[in-house]
Fold:
Amino acid sequence: MFNWAKQQIAYVAGTQEPVYGPSAVKSVAEEAEETPFTELQRENLAWLAMQSTCVETQIFYAYSQAGHVAFVEVIYSNVALHHSGLRTTCQFVCKLFYPKVGKPKSHLWTSTPLSNVELNDDNTSFFAGECEVELSEDSSFYTIKSSSDERAIVDLKVSRVGPGFRAGTSGSTYFGTDLKNPWGFMRHAFWPRCVSEGSITTKEKEIDFKDGHASFIHALQGMKPHHAAAKWNFLNFHGDKYSAIMMEFTTPASYGSTVVNVGCITTDDGIVVAGCNGTATHTDSKDDPVTGWQEPTEARYTWSGTDKDGKTVEGVIEGSLGDKIDCVDIMEEVPGFVKTIIAGAVGTRPYLYQFRPELTLKLKIGDEEVVEKGKMYAEATFIS
Ligand SMILES: *[C@@H]1O[C@H](CO)[C@@H](O)[C@H](O)[C@H]1NC(C)=O
Ligand SMILES: *[C@@H]1O[C@H](CO)[C@@H](O)[C@H](O)[C@H]1NC(C)=O
Structure:
């Protein structure tokens, strides 16, 4: 059978894809060899809201002064159903981790379907009845408001400090046997270093996010997510002077288990290093009888490249991940529509481990060495 036909069957039936090998993926790292990263323009933050199977999200990570870690997220998704065309669904998700880790009820999670979705004229702002995620006119901050679930009323402002970026020029990794006409892609845009203000109000109290650190990611999976990635790693670090972010995915074997790593280290004054030359390694792990996966217990994340003055930059965060703060059975927790996309795929048992490690960023810029403590949030996701 021709590859495109097999791909179409996999696409519609939700089955695993055939093995195309690494030649059917063009990593954004290829662009990054020449142009490690590109600063974002306003139009790069527009919702694509593709009219084909996709999952698109805007996610904000915020760290309160009191020690909470929260993420709030809008998910837009389309599923191509073979009987009845396209089904569009939107969801607002809020996850709040309380400062004291390890306690039984150490987090709050809400997930609410949204309806009457509208975008503004240039598609950078999202409105749906009880939820709004709006980019300011000068493109320097977002306001995120949601009263879609009374257990977590969100009223946050996330302001960019320094530029946003995407890896290479397009920020995209393309999938397909004819890469001039790819059948899928993954794209990420980042605001690595931001300041938060505002609050998340739970039934117990109003949690203040004033003067907190924050990050923002706009992610687009222009294909079935479990076809694009079998594994993910994510790390977000904020110190007084430096912030670091890393997003790494490994494609399924059908695309040669190709690793795509996008990362950045930044200060208030701008990006120190960004691009695709990072690594994420689980340096130790243990059997998790519940999930069947190897739960990481120690990890090492590295960034490397050159800064704007041509100095060599090497960054590393490594050590114990500490006790996990949660392990999410993605099939239980994800909104129904993502389940629809993933369901039926053979060998797919997605679990997401979440951590709040207490580690330091070690940085070498030319001859200068820096060690910085900070707040950190990490994820390890296993899909297939
Ligand atoms: C916004 O999205 C709509 C629908 O996808 C599209 O037709 C329009 O061209 C977009 N506008 C801009 C300014 O990109
Ligand atoms: C990334 O690493 C490769 C191999 O070590 C090196 O050749 C390349 O110059 C690096 N790219 C950047 C942008 O630092």
About this structure: The pocket of 2-acetamido-2-deoxy-beta-D-glucopyranose (ligand 2) is lined by residues 36, 275, 277, 305-306 (CB under 6 Å). The longest strand covers residues 184-201. DSSP finds five helices and 28 strands in the chain.
